[in-house]
Amino acid sequence: MIQNSDLRRALADRLRYYNELGIYDFYRRDPTEGSPQPVQSAVKPDVVLTPQPEQREDMSPRKSAVVAKSADEGVFEILNSKPEQTVTDPVAALKLIREDLGDCTRCKLHQQGRKQIVFGVGNPHADLMFVGEGPGADEDIQGEPFVGRAGQLLNNMIKAMGLRREEVYIANVVKCRPPGNRTPERDECDTCSPFLMRQIAVIKPKVIVALGAVAAKNLLAINGPMSELRGRFYDFIPSGARSSDPSWQGAKLAVTYHPAFLLRDPRQKGEAWKDLQMVMKYLGLKPPQKSE
Ligand code: SF4
């Protein structure tokens, strides 16, 4: 327990600041690795972060949740919880994430000409989720991802999979339009993507399709050319975000070309179709009959 009230207040302020940035999970560094930082050293909850081997069962979320906690531990529990984790309905949970995002000014994209935040659209219960890199001009105007020419092509891709746009969920790594449609920068992706991770944890899709290299590299945190990233499934768990459903063990993630790239180089559409067929097989989807 932290005895010093000034330290406790400063620590609570710091945690609120991180929460404002969309960062909720904090981890205690092994004291043998070096001098502990104030946040890490102060977060020494006796119950949550110091498991005893013989008490493994007590570490399950349900049991630890009913263990009495000191006032300080209560502060940390509240600050480390994401608001949507208190609800199981994905519609309500997404609304809470959107409210938490607010009129976001967390990264510099908020002052580089965005008209509005493009949060995401689609079925909150979707089995399939598409993730692009960021809004373009049309998306910025309409407030919805993938509504321009690239969006039309994505709609056709979804239809070819035997689905309707309303049945999937569509979002981007960053929610504000980068000026001149430039690639979002590392700090912008790092600041915004925790909200995407939380959306994924709420929607709990079976499959995520990363559209393009920027989405793939941000979701997977790996580098590589598209030729290496495509053609296989990855096991994906959203980093830093927990689902309220403990039975959800993450999604399969596939990588394919961004529709905007396919508009520039239509010869690659056949390759993209192979990626989508892999997803269809996993989800048991059949392409629509000609008459449909
Ligand atoms: S891109 Fe994301 S983090 Fe940056 S201002 Fe927009 S909503 Fe906020």
Describe the structure.
It is a single chain. By secondary structure, the chain is of the alpha/beta class. It has twelve helices and six strands. It starts with a helix and ends in a 9-residue tail after the last helix. The structure holds iron/sulfur cluster. Iron/sulfur cluster binds next to helix 8.
Give me the Rg, rounded: 21 Å
Biggest beta-sheet profile: 6 strands, mixed
Unreliable spans: 27-79
Which ligands, by name, code or SMILES, are bound? iron/sulfur cluster
Q: Number of DSSP helices?
A: 12
Helix content: 40-55%
Arithmetic mean of pLDDT: 81
Strand content: 5-15%
Strands side by side in the biggest sheet: 1-3-2-4-6-5
Q: How far is it from the N-terminal to the C-terminal residue, by CA? A: 65 Å
Helix and strand run: HHHHHEEHHEHEHHEEHH
Overall geometry comes to globular
Give the strand tally: 6
Structural class: alpha/beta
